Amino acid sequence: MFEKLKNVLSGITAKEKPSICDKLIKNKTARTVFDVLGYIAALLLPLVCFAQAELLGTGSRAWFLEFLSTQTKVALFSIGLLYLIYFLLVLIFRKFTVPAFILWVTTAALPIASYMKYSTTGDYLYPWDFQQTGNVDLLLEYSNAKIPFIFIVTVFAVLCGCLFIAFTAPSVRVKYFVRLPVLALTIVICFFSLNSEAKINRLVERNGMSFVDGFLPSNSYVENGFIGAFTMNILSTFTDEPEGYSKEKMEAVAQGLESAPQSENFSSPDVILILSESFWDVTRLGSDFSYDPLTNFRRIADRENVYSGTFYTTGFGGGTVRPEFEVLTGLTTDYMPAGCVPYQYVNENLQSYPAMFRDMGYRTLALHPYLSNFYQRQAKYPYLGFDETYFEQDLYKIGEVEISVRGKNISDDTFVDYITHFMDRSDKPTFLFGISMEAHQPYPQKFTEEEFDLSVTDPRLDGETLNIVRQYAQCVADADKALAKLVEWADSRERETVIVYYGDHAPSLGANYAAYVQTGTVADPAAFTAEERLLLQTTPFMIYSNFKLEESDIIKKGSENHIPSYQLMNAACSLMGTKRTGLMSFLTEYKHALPYFNSRLGLTVTAEQQAFVDAHRYITYDIVFGKKYFEDSFK
User: Fold this and answer.
1) How many whole angstroms separate alpha carbon 545 and alpha carbon 305?
2) Rounded alpha-carbon distances, angstroms, from residue 236 to 23, 126, 198, 213, 355
3) Could you please report the per-residue DSSP string of 326-341?
4) pLDDT digits (tens, 9 = 90+) for 370-425
5) Terminal CA-to-CA distance of the chain, rounded, Å?
6) In 137, 240, 269, 459, which residue has its Cα 20 to 30 A from 509's Cα atom?
7) What DSSP character marks residue 213?
8) Which H or E element spans position 502?
9) Residue after which a domain boundary falls, among 235, 261, 284
10) What is the pTM of this model?
11) Burial of 255 by CB count in 10 Å (0-12 exposed, 13-18 middle, 19+ buried)?
């Protein structure tokens, strides 16, 4: 019997080539010791890589120790996940060397990238960030975070462990026809354990996590660590159907809402919608500026026929595409995966404001002096109703506009020249959406000393942070001058023109909210107060016209208005008297019940207000992912 067992084992046992250790160490006892140590190192590697990932993801040993003691379930889940991945790789490669290096690189590169992104933008690394891999060289320019020395030590220490594993070459001495079925069976078990929302929720909750934290990304990464949060984001890549979603549910949401044709006074004015990159009131820091960077914005906002106030955004330091999507569609990104690119879900014509204006006979165009493939804009804008798109490579071909570059980007002054170039050559009513680029980070070396016309003093700021604030303030001042130039052009036109202008998000201003913390604007970045959230998630906005607009019940003249991103164009359209869609009717009722809301603000709402929040989610799901029952209710 033993002879048969021996024959079976010999049939499935793979032959081993001598390792480097075998070749160099001739003493049998010493070689045995090294072999044992090699297997121990191989078995401990996922545990070490877990520690590496979490230390690199936050750069804080204190947080890591607290995480181990307070979030033990999450830590064990993360460790178990790494062991599972490691086990699968070993089944493929048989030897531990290649899986060890794969695990080392992955748990070093991704957390470091997340740390650098957070330090620069206040947001972490998400799975969908890899859609921008074609622009990695440009994305790296936007990180001004310094790599802590402890990172170098940690990565080098784990590398030494991997090299020791390569030296001793431990392996699973089993042939492929045994390993591969085990691999396949393990994958099948994993798939059927995660093939429904209920199973995923049970797994997450059983391990001490919650998808609710995903609505506030910073909470998720702080509470669940890098591995836990990143895994949850992967598991939530596909937006789940809201509970109870059906044709009957959407008809109930649409009940009482009405679409309406344009008003009798609608004059088909040209509409210019401008997303001003990182446009924020930097004077809120309380620093001393040689002049107010928002001089022109405030002057124009004081005019009789101008509507302005506070714009509530879902971005901070980055993530422009989310408030952009909400402004253009009136939908919400709150229930999409945290940090995702909404355009990744748009694969057919979508209800939007550009599409509405196009249906009203307008020429619709989008203009952005940057890469056409960034955030998938060029591919997805046609689905939103843009007939023409112009990006950096297109704009450089237009010889009639003299280009000036400020801080490595096309200046806001030139950006305005491009806008007027297209508008003056349009022979029909035009809807133009433009995204400026000059104020995009990085800020530290954006301008040379000769390029400044503004100075900043603040004894509370260290030298590096003061420089960032000054560089950014110059960007704001340049945008402010460009806005004045655009309004002056509109004032000189005979054609009626509306300009809708807003900042997409506040700037990061140094690693880990440096300027905000040093000025006392923010006390603790790990625990924002409600007031701090409102400051960080708001920017200025303005609706200007060179003719008298209609009265509106959702926005009033003056600078005291409060508008969330998804309401901005609804407000502008109500002033112009455009046609009204069912979604616009819903948004108007929503505005009356809850003036502003998004999940990042941390607001407490009543049951009645929550019903509107939930309805907005149903509408968004139905229009983007679902059967479009809501739209059909108004046909």
Assistant:
1) 7
2) 49, 11, 12, 12, 29
3) HHHHS---TTSPTT--
4) 988 888 899 999 999 999 999 999 999 998 999 999 988 999 999 999 999 999 99
5) 79
6) 137
7) G
8) strand 497-503
9) 235
10) 0.80
11) exposed
